[in-house]
Amino acid sequence: MIKGIGLDIVDLERISRSLQRGSRLAERVLTPKEKKRFMEMGNPRRKVEFLAGRFAAKEALAKAAGTGIGKLSFQHIEVSSDKGGAPAIRAKGYEDSKLFISITHSKDYAAAQVIIEE
């Protein structure tokens, strides 16, 4: 049974401007494993897409959960990739739920959708 569906879209230019000012957003949004992967990326454009995608994914999960970010923090949610490169998401407190995620990027935006199934 579907418990929740969440969707979020992020402007890549906004993320780019934030990264130009420093790493505060990345520190707040990314878990240590995500940050390691982020720091290993050489292409600045790819770093923007990565951070924007993770931000959108975490916001989408919080919306699907019905809590919003705050009760469920960015650090409670982690997005990884399977062997084929498809995204996977897990969150503290949702270990017994099945989580589905899709992340996409265009020239100007990153978007993510999350479905929580119990």
TrEMBL record:
<keyword id="KW-0444">Lipid biosynthesis</keyword>
<keyword id="KW-0808">Transferase</keyword>
<dbReference type="InterPro" id="IPR008278">
    <property type="entry name" value="4-PPantetheinyl_Trfase_dom"/>
</dbReference>
<keyword id="KW-0276">Fatty acid metabolism</keyword>
<keyword id="KW-0275">Fatty acid biosynthesis</keyword>
<comment type="similarity">
    <text>Belongs to the P-Pant transferase superfamily. AcpS family.</text>
</comment>
<keyword id="KW-0443">Lipid metabolism</keyword>
<feature type="binding site">
    <location>
        <position position="8"/>
    </location>
    <ligand>
        <name>Mg(2+)</name>
    </ligand>
</feature>
<comment type="function">
    <text>Transfers the 4'-phosphopantetheine moiety from coenzyme A to a Ser of acyl-carrier-protein.</text>
</comment>
<dbReference type="Pfam" id="PF01648">
    <property type="entry name" value="ACPS"/>
</dbReference>
<keyword id="KW-0479">Metal-binding</keyword>
<dbReference type="InterPro" id="IPR037143">
    <property type="entry name" value="4-PPantetheinyl_Trfase_dom_sf"/>
</dbReference>
<dbReference type="InterPro" id="IPR004568">
    <property type="entry name" value="Ppantetheine-prot_Trfase_dom"/>
</dbReference>
<feature type="binding site">
    <location>
        <position position="59"/>
    </location>
    <ligand>
        <name>Mg(2+)</name>
    </ligand>
</feature>
<feature type="domain" description="4'-phosphopantetheinyl transferase">
    <location>
        <begin position="4"/>
        <end position="112"/>
    </location>
</feature>
<dbReference type="GO" id="GO:0008897">
    <property type="term" value="F:holo-[acyl-carrier-protein] synthase activity"/>
</dbReference>
<protein>
    <recommendedName>
        <fullName>Holo-[acyl-carrier-protein] synthase</fullName>
        <ecNumber>2.7.8.7</ecNumber>
    </recommendedName>
</protein>
<dbReference type="InterPro" id="IPR002582">
    <property type="entry name" value="ACPS"/>
</dbReference>
<keyword id="KW-0460">Magnesium</keyword>
<keyword id="KW-0963">Cytoplasm</keyword>
